[in-house]
Amino acid sequence: MVGRYAPSPSGDLHLGNLRTALVAWLMARSAGSPFLVRVEDLDRGRSREHFVATQLEDLAALGLDHDGPVMRQSERAPRYDEALARLGRDDRLYECFCTRAEIRQAASAPHGDGPEGAYPGTCRHLSSAARTTHLEAGRRPALRVRADDASFAIEDRLAGTVTATIDDFVVRRADGEHAYNLAVVVDDADQGVQEVVRGDDLLSTTPRQAWLATQLNLTPPASYVHVPLVLGPDGTRLAKRHGAVTLRELLAAGWTDADVLTFIARSIGVDGTPQSAADLVAAWDLAQLPRDPVTLDPATALPPR
Ligand code: GLU
């Protein structure tokens, strides 16, 4: 099962990201499988070249090695355009002028019958007069894929079978950038990824991605592991505001790479004092991974020597 880790270079990886990366790496390596890394620098506004380098360095420092070249989404626009062209030929695309606020409002209307947070279909049958009005008002359309309320199921090794009604989701943003939900599908298929391990904040969008793969005649990943979130001591999602949470910050606070690895390993149910991720492969067992969000507080945890 070819695995991968696909960070967005919008900051240094924090303990939650490193933990997910470690699980992804262990899933692949414990099965003797290839492990790939992809830089998700699709969002030019938020991506920084500096973080591409530091993220790769931090993965390497913990011993999370990878096979083959690192794929960069910023270099793959022609492939995403091919996918859009195919959807267009299949009459699966339409322009959408809705703002987020308009979608929220329409989706909360009493007659809305789609799944929660789903696009209510406002622009699905836009008249050419309405389209002209939007364009004249300076609005630029996003492109949505027409899913016809298809029902689609994916298999997650923690969450089980997840079935969803697919809404018409954005595949090209109004600013012209390709949408994450398009890129990830094309990339995982082109890289031959068979198992996706990532944070469980993406679980709800996964049926969309797998469904889109089938529309593009691509093979979706066979299995998923959506790893429960890491929380800070205040119970909110771990982030910068919680203090020293990146590898660099922890090293500056006196931890070693091995300390950080040991700390993360305990949080995924593996005891020991690893010097490198390879030392964890034999003991790794997905069944030991906590199914609920875990709280990590490096400030009160002594470096685990
Ligand atoms: N790039 C996404 C992130 O850093 C992960 C996407 C994925 O793994 O599919 O949150």
TrEMBL record:
Q: Which GO terms describe its molecular function?
A: ATP binding; glutamate-tRNA ligase activity; zinc ion binding
Q: Which PROSITE patterns match?
A: AA_TRNA_LIGASE_I
Q: Where, in this chain's numbering, is Zn(2+) bound? A: C96, C98, Y119, C123
Instruction: Kindly state what the record says about how the cofactor is bound.
Output: Binds 1 zinc ion per subunit.
Names of the cofactor(s): Zn(2+)
Supply the NCBIfam families for this chain.
PRK05710.1-3, PRK05710.1-4, queuosine_YadB
Q: What biological processes does GO assign it?
A: glutamyl-tRNA aminoacylation; tRNA modification
Recorded hits in HAMAP family, A to Z, give:
Glu_Q_tRNA_synth
| Annotated motif 'KMSKS' region, positions | 237-241
Which top-level enzyme class is recorded in the Swiss-Prot or TrEMBL entry? ligase
* Domain Glutamyl/glutaminyl-tRNA synthetase class Ib catalytic, residue spans: 3-263
This chain belongs to the protein called Glutamyl-Q tRNA(Asp) synthetase
Keywords from the UniProt entry: Aminoacyl-tRNA synthetase, ATP-binding, Ligase, Metal-binding, Nucleotide-binding, Protein biosynthesis, Zinc
E.C. designation(s): 6.1.1.-
Motif 'HIGH' region extends across 7-17
Q: Please verify whether the record's keywords include Cell membrane.
A: no
- Which InterPro entries does this one have? aa-tRNA-synth_I_CS, Glu-Q_tRNA(Asp)_Synthase, Glu/Gln-tRNA-synth, Glu/Gln-tRNA-synth_Ib_cat-dom, GluQ/Sye, Rossmann-like_a/b/a_fold
The record describes the protein's role as: Catalyzes the tRNA-independent activation of glutamate in presence of ATP and the subsequent transfer of glutamate onto a tRNA(Asp). Glutamate is transferred on the 2-amino-5-(4,5-dihydroxy-2-cyclopenten-1-yl) moiety of the queuosine in the wobble position of the QUC anticodon.
Which residues are noted in the entry as L-glutamate-binding?
R4, Y5, A6, P7, S8, E40, Y180, R198
Give the record's family classification. Belongs to the class-I aminoacyl-tRNA synthetase family. GluQ subfamily.
Taken from the UniProt entry, a GO cellular component term is: cytosol
A Pfam family matched in the record: tRNA-synt_1c
Q: Which residues bind ATP?
A: K240
